[in-house]
Amino acid sequence: MLYEYLPILIFLALALLFATVMLSAGFIFGGSNPDDEKNSPYECGFEPFEDSRMKFDVRFYLVAILFIIFDLEIAFLFPWAVVLDHIGLEGYLAMAIFIFILLIGFIYEWKKGALEWD
Amino acid sequence: MFDLFYIPEIILSIGILLVIVIDLYIEKQKYFSYLLIQFLIILASFYALTEVPTHAYSSYEFSKFTSLIKFLLLVGALIIFHYTYRHLNYLNNLKIEYFTISVLGLIGTMIMISAYSLLMLYLGIELLSLALYALIGFNKASKLSSEAAIKYYILGAMSSGILLFGISLIYGFTGSIDYFEIAEQISSVNNNSVQFLGIIFGMIFITASLCFKFGAAPFHIWVPDIYQGSLVSTTILLSTLPKVAVFVVFLKLYFIPFITLAFIWSDILIFIGIASIVIGSIFALTQENMKRLLAYSAISNIGFIILAMGLVTDDGLNASLYYTIVYSFTALASFGIITHITSNSHGIEDISDLAGLSKTHPYFAILILITMLSSAGIPPLIGFHAKLMVIQALINNSYIILSVLVVLMTVISAYYYLRIIKTIYFENRENLISTYTRNNILLSINVILLLGLGVFPFIMFDITSYLASILVDISI
Amino acid sequence: MTALTIILLISPLIGTLLLLTCQNRSKKYSILISNISILISFLLSLFILYLYYSSNSVPQSINVLTFADIKLFSLYFGLYIDSLSLVMSSVVTSVSLLVHYYSISYMKHDRSFNRFFIYTNFFTFSMLLIVFSNNFLQLFIGWELVGLSSYLLIGFWIKKESAISANYKAFLVNRVGDVGLLLGLCLILLSYSTTDYNQIFEIKNSIDMDRMDIFGYSFSALSAICMLLFIGAMAKSAQVPLQFWLPDSMEGPTPISALIHAATMVTAGIYMVARLSPLYELTDGVLIFILYIGSITAFFLGLVALVQNDIKRIIAYSTISQLGYMTAALGASLYSLAMFHLITHAFFKALLFLCAGSIIIKCHHEQDIRKIAGLRKVMPITYLAFLYASLSLIGFPLTSGFYSKESIIDAVGYFGHTIPYLMLLLSIFTTTLYTSKIFFKVFFGKCSLPKSEENNFKIENDRQMLLPLFVLTAPAVFLGLFIYDPLMMGLLFQDSLAANELTISFYNNYVINSLNFFLHSFMTINFLILFAGLIFSYFYFYKRSFDISIPRFIRAVIEKEYGFDSLSRYFIPRIQNNISRFLWKDIDISTIDNGLINNTSNIINSLSNKVKKLQTGYIYHYSLIIISALILLLIIMRIAH
Question: Which of the listed ranges B9-18, C48-57, C208-217 does the model predict with the highest average pLDDT?
Fold first, then answer.
């Protein structure tokens, strides 16, 4: 039974091997002469104004999260729509409950003002 | 089909969705929403006791045992919400979302309890964990709170991964996620086969993950930081409801699917139990922060529960059930008292914040005194009987050295419980201690029960032996 | 009867508690409470005694209250009501009552007046607890309480150094006895599994010769028990070699000496042996030991009294000597005679002490008889009382002391114990000598008091101090005559004491009746010795017509109490000090406190401080720990299976 997994093991070993060989080859053979200019981020010819790791407005994350939730909903809806003929009323009700819960989430975020930028 | 609407999980789920919407429209009357939630819980607890669905569901179990435990959880939640509302109100941090999220976590614990398949178990654990992540980070103003939330989130995700890996191993080697089928599969497996090894690996992964959720050493590492970072009301929740639920999951997992592997997991559980007791006792010794200290105390108490369970005997089972209930009770009381008190106009953080409490608020001082003495295991308080039962079970199973070690650790832990009492009664410091109420009947009852049930321990003996007897009913 | 007995017993205790509560009130409260509580006990004792004899009751053993009942034994408070305990309680309470009454005046200038009565009341209660106990545990508790109260009372004057060392000594010597008693108690539990007197008396017949093996030695359990218990009695009743605390106990107030010597403490040992006479009757070896210890004490400690000059110390040695008589009687199985002598001795010795107290007060706390003289005219009442008490003590015919003491001597002789008999006979002489020594020196000669007081006849002393003297004179002189016949016929103590038939046969064959015994006594060697003693002391102490120089060596030996004095004064304290210092400095402080206790806590504390740093707060450390813990579990599993 465990022999069925042998290819996976071989695959893992090979992947590991390749990765190490590649990385170490670059490390060994490649030259490395760092100086200040090389290490600074490229900013189109002039000195960088600020740290390249700048702060994002937290609202970007909020929108992204909300997007993911409703995007995932679609991921559920597609397969459900394909087999709707076979799963009948029960399947329909289950998805209805799911959508209903999402709806409440939607109402909540709307009402709380999460969809407004300011 | 419609009898499903009577089970507490469904009542709570539908109800809480409604409350979320209602709260949006009556934002000013938070007390009304709060009462609505409390009503929901009372309703659910009523149905938890009265209605036991007779339908058999493949991955979900209803029995007297689960109903009783759910009832206990619901009552616990009722009390915790009672403390929480006034605590948050007092800190000007009251949001109904706190309660709705808590209820969602509560539903998660109930699913865990009733789960009869590994995936359903995972679902419950995740629901609970998601709620807890949010609750821990609730105090947005505090850096510690956010830090704790992130820590718990990342480590929790890791432990969920471990759990899922364990589940997939079990599924891969037994071909099932149903408890009963797993049990059948395991009993037919040869002890020396690869399959057996895989199952054991899966079991250990699941154990590790559950121990993480339980807060048992050596997976306890998150506990003190998270306890310290979150609000006291969250700490009560963390130290009671999930622990009871995880305990029941432990019971169900080990005594149903993995019962034939008892010779393996008993050693592991005893190791974890002893490690928790030792680490909990020794780390707590020099803590200055009240919540950290209680966190370590929780770890050592969890150790007692797991240790008793690891004995795989009737008295061990009884003792662990007894200890769980007593522990939840004591935690409810000790954190409950702290929710009532503020020192220097912030919540209680350090032990020294409590200095001088006996002069200004003798009522709360006495409550803490009794609770701490009970935690230290001093007769005739109930904590004594709980510890006694565990140690007795150990001795009955001829783990003499372990029992000596446990007693020694109890002595060490008595030190830091008594230190709190010493601070309250014998240290004079000018702390601006204030409470929002002179007394609280629920709290008083809670503490008096610690004493009363300790004087008449047979009441609790009867309850736990009844619970143990009905637990055995379903596992066959 | 049970209820009354409980009241009798509890009354002094309630008195103590009440006294404790009104410690800071005026003296009147103390006087009232203490005297009334003892009076209640006394009256009840007499009443119950009367009830007991008039209703022909049988001995009763009642368990009143059970405190604890474990497998091995049960701890309960019980009462043993029979003629022995009732007679004893009557003696105890009557003497105690008189001493209380006497103390009102004796202690009236003392600053700790109220404290005194707390102690005395408690003392009486403790003694009654012993008297009425029906099991060994209660006996032991009473025994310890008596030791405690005597400790408190001997050291009553807490600022007097000699008093403190005396009570320390009394306490320690009594501890030695307590160890014996406790070991005996343990052995009883071991072999009989009960502490109840009656049950043990019943069992003992079946397994009296039960052998015990300890460290390879095999011996009779019963003998060992009796021996160990007797060691306890030796300490309490001041028998050789545990007698040396008693003379020092004179450091307490004089009424306390009366109480200790007459009623409440030293008699406890005698009473216990008498109470356990059914057991002792079965152990011949122990009885012979007791007999010899008793007669040695009687003779040799009587000699010591001769060379003493402190009035109270002389009387104290006389007590030891008289206790020797009682012990000898116990050893000869003459239990009722021992009890008889205990009773008569209680009265005349209490009288002697109270007289001594009266003299001491009059002479402004002067106790040296060389410095006191000629008090006959100044203190006529004390003089007479002292005369009667002395006559009783030396056993002058017809007095109480005569009946009890002569009977013991004659009976010991009658049953053929030759050596003890001789020793007891000789002590008649010494008794006569030391008694007359006090008598002649104190009351005759040129008055030692200042002229101003000498002629002040009207105030001999307070009336409260003189009344007890009157009252005590009656039993001290005549009690013997009245109870002699019923006692000897075994009617007084009925079945409470074993081996009554010995006494009865002695009575029937030798005594016939009290009058005959009196007449007969003039023709015995006893009287001859007594008479010789009197003549001798008349000329030696009173007329001073000749002087005898005792060889210095012998004098020194006697004065040093045969070495017990230096033993108790130098060797034992030194050894004990060294042992105590070792236990204190090396064992307790260095090893236990610092070594074990503080080190343990320090180690654990520093351990806690160190391991605390494992909690770094970094998520990657945490995840590492969790992963390694998981791997650890897997390893454990592999190793275990």
Answer: B9-18
